[in-house]
Design a protein that fits this description.
The protein is an all-alpha fold. The chain has two domains: about 80 residues, Rna Polymerase Sigma Factor, Chain: A, CATH 1.10.1740.10; about 80 residues, Arc Repressor Mutant, subunit A. The protein is built from nine helices and no strands. Helix 2 crosses helix 3, helix 7 crosses helix 9 and helix 8 crosses helix 9. It is globular. The N and C termini lie far apart (about 45 Å).
Length: about 180
């Protein structure tokens, strides 16, 4: 079933929409949550909450593409759950990915940097557009989907060391790009 048909089911308030959404994007959603939380029970809970979130937000939204929409919902829920869990323990895989980006991105502690943070998504989009497809895929797999370096290496048919070096170079490019654009590091 294609995305437009699934969205049409949501608009018709048919419970079949959730079934079709799960059939089409369930494995992707579980993968994203598991990469962030590394807990099967929390992963299932977040995915189910994401389906409920989609049910409550479609309509009025008409997402296109649906995959990005549901991935964003599940990722946001996962990160919220991660922060709730992180008071109790650390999740090494996702912590490592966040620590890698720490030197590239600052937290909005002042009014100036808060204004700068509003510009950050546009700058990140421009930066990603400037990358070759291979570098962009590796960067997004690591920092959006939370894939491990080993998983990225397997998917891209590369050695883990090659992926690590590529990510390091891309982070350096990001740091330079943001600095050049006047983003406060």
């Amino acid at each position: 079933m294609d995305d437009n048909q699934i969205v049409a089911l949501f608009y018709a308030r048919s419970e079949q929409a959730i079934v079709e959404l799960s059939n089409k994007y369930g494995k992707l959603c579980i993968s994203i949550v598991h990469n962030i939380l590394n807990d099967t029970q929390d992963a299932e809970e977040c995915v189910n909450d994401a389906y409920l979130g989609a049910w409550n937000s479609i309509p009025p939204h008409k997402p296109n593409p649906l995959s990005t929409y549901i991935c964003r919902i599940v990722r946001n829920l996962s990160i919220a759950k991660y922060h709730a869990n992180s008071a109790q323990k650390r999740n090494s895989q996702y912590d490592v990915a966040l620590d890698e980006l720490e030197n590239c991105l600052s937290s909005p502690a002042t009014v100036e940097s808060a204004l700068s943070a509003r510009e950050l998504p546009r700058l990140l989009d421009r930066f990603l557009d400037s990358l070759d497809v291979h570098s962009r895929v590796i960067f997004v797999r690591r920092y959006w989907y939370g894939d491990s370096i080993q998983d990225i290496a397997a998917k891209c048919r590369l050695r883990s060391n090659t992926v690590s070096v590529q990510l390091s170079r891309t982070r350096d490019k990001l740091r330079k790009f943001l600095s050049k654009e006047g983003y406060i590091l």
